[in-house]
Amino acid sequence: MRPNRVRERWNAGEAAVSGWLSFGNSYTAEIVGLSGVDCVTIDLQHAMTDVSDMIVMLQAISATPATPFVRVPNAEPGIIMKALDAGSYGIICPLVNSVGDAKALVDASSYPPLGGRSFGPARGLLYGGPDYAQHADATIVRLAMIETREGLAAVDDICAVDGLDGIFVGPSDLGLNLGRGTAADPSDSDVRAAIDRCLAAAKAAGKRAGLFCPSGAVARRRAEQGFDFVVPNSDANLLKAALAAELAVIGKA
Ligand code: 3PY
Ligand code: MG
Fold first, then answer.
1. What is the CATH number of domain 5-249?
2. Crossing angle for the helix pair 99-108 and 77-85, nearest 10 degrees?
3. Domain ranges in the chain?
4. Can you tell me which atom of ligand 1 is nearest the CA of 172?
5. 171 C-beta closer than 6 A to ligand 1
6. Which bound ligand lies closest to the C-alpha atom of 43?
7. Tens-place pLDDT, residues 3-44
8. Where is the HpcH/HpaI aldolase/citrate lyase domain (predicted)?
9. Could you read off the pLDDT of 99-148 as tens digits, one per residue?
10. Which among 8, 27, 46, 78 is annotated as catalytic?
11. Does the C-beta of 147 come closer than 6 Å to ligand 1?
12. DSSP assignment of 10-60, as one string?
């Protein structure tokens, strides 16, 4: 089976860097996939994307060296299985608030006996290779998002769930849930402590920790801190920032 570059980075003792796709478009998926990132995450939760966009985006990413991940809208088994069948090598699941939510993620993304994923890997087989079924469970990465008070309170138990590779912190929702705003690189000491707490919980359980970041500088700092999976902002945010900078040069901003 084609290897997962995120796991390769981890096995080499490095953090994996992921692009983040908010446009439901195969061209931007290809551009980000060829940018030098290890991974490209298609966001089906908040982005302007739907399932048919996801399929052509996964096809575009196949033509790049980057490994495709999908952030699903929720832990509903149907969408997790569909993303995997379409060739995603990683699932990032938002709003994981309990051990039950984390187990549901593992269950939907793993074949029996580990889980209850139904067999029909469609594009997964084309992208992964003919031995997909034997290696899928060990190749696919499952990250549970910690981004609420409940998730934070349960983070140790969530990290202990068998088959879960780790957690992915959503700093904006976490800040919002703590009543401290939506900054992606929070200065608030409680939100910062909550992020550090998530990292410590993952490490204590021998699991991986990821984090959405608003820039490469923050992503680098977080990787140096010990995060294993960092996202240096989304395509849409980067386009907005780059355009604003250019417009400022010509006096339009
Ligand atoms: C958050 O910050 O809440 C996120 O979900 C980042 O993607
Ligand atoms: Mg969020």
1. 3.20.20.60
2. 40
3. 5-249
4. 2
5. yes
6. 1
7. 999 999 999 999 999 999 999 999 999 999 999 999 999 999
8. 20-208
9. 999 999 999 999 999 999 999 999 999 999 999 999 999 999 999 999 99
10. 46
11. yes
12. HHTT--EEEEEE-B--HHHHHHHHTTT-SEEEEE-SSSB--HHHHHHHHHH
